[in-house]
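F.,

This is the one I mentioned.
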């Protein structure tokens, strides 16, 4: 499972101050922005695959369309997974340091 980990585990050694809280908020917003870019990329691949599928003159493009659909789904799943992983990590970091 080490392959599926995208970040480092961090243990806070002191209480969170305002500067750290703001850094966590920036990271949370960047995480949401990254999720939206994963979704945007997967939608572009989906639209490209639909366009390739509409080209009836070229039969080889159907395989390219199928490949693009598969990559679109993979991008979407990776984006959701990374978003939830970082969100869980930020929650754990924030709530553990408050206790």
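My design for it:
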């Amino acid at each position: 499972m080490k392959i599926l980990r995208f970040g480092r585990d961090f243990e806070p050694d002191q209480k969170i101050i305002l500067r750290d809280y703001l850094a966590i908020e920036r990271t949370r917003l960047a995480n949401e922005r990254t999720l939206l870019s994963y979704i945007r990329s997967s939608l572009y691949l989906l639209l490209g695959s639909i366009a390739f599928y509409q080209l009836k003159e070229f039969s080889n493009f159907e395989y390219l369309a199928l490949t693009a659909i598969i990559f679109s789904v993979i991008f979407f799943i990776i984006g959701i997974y990374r978003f939830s992983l970082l969100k869980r990590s930020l929650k754990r970091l924030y709530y553990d340091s408050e206790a």
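The helical segments are 18-54, 61-98.

Talk soon.
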